[in-house]
Amino acid sequence: MAELMIDYITSLDGFGSAEGWPGLWGMGGPDYYAFLEQDGREDYTTLLGATTYRLFARFAETGEEEMAEVTARPKVVFSRTLTEPLEWANTTLVAGDAVEAVRAMKQDGGALRTIGSPSLARSLLIAGLVDRVRVVVFPVVNGATGGDRLYDGWPDVRLELLDSRTLDGRLTLLEYAPTVLDGPPGA
């Protein structure tokens, strides 16, 4: 069975982006970029929601962000608003239920990862399909400028730490095995 990982970058207060801040909060460094390069050599299919797809496809088209690795990788976008043909290479559109589609993809084998896509990630977590959650925490608080609150609407989740490390002396990579709870432990 395929393994599904949610993959986020976040501010300390749980935002996936912030208005007016540069990409990666201006804090990408050699360790982080080496981690991304090594991670990019792994074989997996990227799962995207429509909003993240639109953003990343624009980055790929304009060159605003380096997207060659993601462009080359197989991608599946879940959307009822996008239509084929999709212009971003190696992308398949699924207009039906994302949970059922991903459940079938997991049976077929091969590693799966979300990137961004908080609504998609949340629905897959709630359905019990997520095997790992990986988060790179950037040491900023975006209380005034934050966007894309990543954990809103999540159920209670217990996380078992699988890996942690510091990148560039300031970024914290955390990898967890999630267990969705019905409520607080002991309730």
Spell out the key features of this protein.
187 residues; alpha/beta; eight-stranded mixed beta sheet; 5 helices; 26% helix; 33% strand; Dihydrofolate reductase family protein; Riboflavin_Biosynth_HTPR; RibDG_C; DHFR-like_dom_sf
Low-pLDDT ranges: none
How many strand elements? Answer: 10
- The arrangement of helices and strands along the chain is EEHEHHEEHEHEEEE
Arrangement of strands in the largest sheet: 5-4-3-6-1-7-10-9
Overall geometry comes to globular
Q: Rg from C-alpha positions?
A: 16 Å
Largest sheet: 8 strands, mixed
Global mean pLDDT: 93
Separation of the first and last Cα atoms: 32 Å
The portion of residues assigned to helices is 25-40%
Structural class: alpha/beta
Continuous helix count:
5
Strand content: 25-35%
Structure, briefly:
This protein is of the alpha/beta class. The protein is built from 5 helices and 10 strands. InterPro entries: DHFR-like_dom_sf, RibDG_C, Riboflavin_Biosynth_HTPR.
Task: Show the helix and strand layout.
Layout: E1 4-11, E2 15-18, H1 30-40, E3 44-49, H2 50-62, H3 68-72, E4 75-78, E5 91-94, H4 98-108, E6 111-114, H5 118-126, E7 132-138, E8 146-149, E9 157-167, E10 171-180
Parallel strand pairs: 1-6, 1-7, 3-4, 3-6, 4-5
Antiparallel strand pairs: 2-8, 7-10, 9-10
Pfam family, one: RibD_C
Domain Bacterial bifunctional deaminase-reductase C-terminal: 4-171
InterPro entries: DHFR-like_dom_sf (IPR024072), RibDG_C (IPR002734), Riboflavin_Biosynth_HTPR (IPR050765)
